[in-house]
What we know:
- It holds the Pfam family Hydrolase_3.
- Catalyzes the dephosphorylation of 2-phosphoglycolate.
- The relative contact order is 0.18.
- By secondary structure, the chain is an alpha/beta fold.
- The chain is built from eight helices and eleven strands.
- The chain folds into two domains: 151 residues, HAD superfamily/HAD-like (Rossmann fold); 64 residues, Hypothetical Protein Ta0175, Chain: A, domain 2 (Alpha-Beta Complex), CATH 3.90.1070.10.
- Helices cover 34% and strands 17% of the residues.
Amino acid sequence: MVHIRAIAADIDGTLTDERRRVSPAVLEVVERLDVPVILATGNALCFTRAAALLIGTCGATVSENGAVLSTALDTEPHVLVEKRVCLRGYELLRDHYDMRLLDFEYRKSEVVVARTFDAKEANEIVRSHYPELEVIDTGFAIHIKAASMSKGEGVRRLLELLDWDMGMEHVAAFGDSVSDLSMLEGAGVSVAVANSPPEVKKRATYVARSPYGEGFAEGVAWLEEQGLL
């Protein structure tokens, strides 16, 4: 039987609702948990750290879809891919689309723009010139990122930095989006909240009946019922 020693959770759509409000159920669960909760998100580090502080997690975070890691709220972050690399993809796409940058000054790796064009088409354009890059649509924004980076890879590397003497097999991952799949598939146990698309649900160990933060709380309760936590 897998013994869960840490939880890795996406933020938007998993801990928060469609208006980006954190469910009270999340706060209650995190407060009583005996295992650390790692936030893994596509958001910028400053947002992730603020969320960790307000939600009450351990402070270890994965930001920008795996490219920016932080072992605590007050430590120097580890930036795995520099933003100048992703800027090449942005400059290329400017010839094809009218794009609006989001949070550019706060980003350390990715370039993020508003959802005003087809990300799949843009990904084909970028990959044809820069195969080391990719373009993804998280449902909240379009991210131009390093193809080698993912939330799953970010959590794996963060565990090494934390020196908690555990691998991904001891992590329970929670998510709602295709961008969470690397984390869900790499973890020992995975939970998809009810608002997840079918391709995410079919790859999860457990699919919550409730959406958003209530689904997170339900997933934690399921882990406890199964004796995994």
